[in-house]
């Protein structure tokens, strides 16, 4: 390229190409965030549309309201059948947010306190299951999510 022939028209073309690329990049990021927020809200809504999750969530909410906490893994089977789907669902949400598949801020804003309270309510049960199954990482994604993203609750 001959620098002598590099005039104003070339600068204008270069500037317009750069503006187009920046505009595309910004649009892509905005669309990607919107898509992740919408998918996060759809997944969060599943806790109320799934009868199994809704029942488990209501059971845990009653426990929290009454100030009860689960400890040990010797709990009735029907209680376990209520809390395990909720724990698995919250674990899935936390893993997905960590891997940037879900919008973390939206998850924290809409379900963060519920995830935190559920975790602390059943922490004794989780600890006993970790020890019994020799799986120290069981539900550690929920624990990490709560510690990093949700305000801590005094215990």
Describe the protein's architecture and organization.
The protein is mostly helical. It has one domain. It is 76% helix and 0% strand. Helix 1 runs parallel beside helix 4 and helix 3 runs antiparallel to helix 4. The longest helix is centred in the N-terminal third of the chain and has 42 residues. The mean pLDDT is 90.
SSE blueprint:
Layout: H1 8-49, H2 51-65, H3 77-98, H4 104-121, H5 123-133, H6 140-149
Helix pairs in contact: 1-2, 1-4, 2-3, 3-4, 3-6, 4-6
Short recap of the structure:
With 155 residues, the chain is an all-alpha fold. The protein is built from 6 helices and no strands.
Number of domains: 1
- Note the overall shape: elongated
What structural class do helix, strand and pairing data support?
Answer: mainly alpha
Intertermini distance: 70 Å
> How do the helices and strands follow one another from N- to C-terminus?
HHHHHH
**Strand-residue fraction?**
under 5%
Mean pLDDT: 90
Largest sheet data: none
Show unreliable segments: none
- Beta strands, count: 0
Number of continuous helical runs: 6
Q: For the CA atoms, what is the radius of gyration?
A: 24 Å
Q: How much helix, percentage-wise, in residues?
A: over 70%
